[in-house]
Amino acid sequence: MKLPLQTTFFKVLFFTALTAISILAFLPDYDALPPIVSFSDLLNHTIAFVVLFILATLGHPSLLVKQIVYALVIYAFFIEAVQYFLPTRFASWSDIGADVAGLIIGYGVMIFLRRLPYTKNLFS
To answer: What is the DSSP letter of 39?
Structure first.
């Protein structure tokens, strides 16, 4: 059982990550970022959605996995829809595919972490 403070901590981390990812997604000149950030757009999408899935699962334990997945898939489409209308960005189906891959990987990470004896209470 998660403590309310622990859940609140992960909610704050989730919304912080969501804000940071949104800012990066809507920057007019993504390529002007340092190479550590802009080295691979698809890898960035995948990592971002792994992190979002794990933080959403930990911050919102009452939600079903499919509810979290649906919400994050809608968010992925939202990002691409906004980028479609930005003059310096473009929408891409491959980005949505990378986002979904991140959700699948995030789910696998959560299953793995739940089986570890040291993290059983945190990820159950």
So the answer is: S
Report if residue 31 sits inside a domain. Answer: no
Task: Please count the structural domains in the chain.
Answer: 1
- The span from the CA of 8 to the CA of 59, in Å, is 6
Given a contact cutoff of 8 angstroms between Cβ atoms, the answer to whether 89 and 83 are in contact is yes
Residue 105 structural domain: 4-25+37-115
Residue ranges of alpha helices (H) inside the chain are 4-26, 35-38, 41-59, 65-85, 93-115
For the ranges 4-8, 30-34, 36-40, 84-88, the maximum mean pLDDT occurs at 84-88
Q: Could you give the CA distance from residue 32 to residue 72 in angstroms, rounded to a whole number?
A: 27
pLDDT category at 56 given cuts 50, 70, 90 is very high
Task: Give the span between the Cα atoms of 89 and 17, in whole angstroms.
Answer: 21
CA distance 102 to 47: 6
